[in-house]
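Appendix B. Chain record.
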Amino acid sequence: SRISPFTYVQHLIKRDATIIAQALGQGATVMICGGKAMAAAVEDEFQTLCVQANIDFHALKSQGRFKQVVF
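Structure tokens predicted for this chain:
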């Protein structure tokens, strides 16, 4: 989840948003595993990505294409 110095998953999602949006458009599934705080920050960034890319985030979740294992 971290690449030194202090790069977090949500930062990488923001950086690579175009590539991720393209993959989602082609049917990709996202799987997130980690602590509650990390999962919340990652989900927030994914929601932002989806709004910007005109992707229905709630549809991704209901289709099982955005999955989380949170502890």
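Further analysis of this model is presented in Appendix C.
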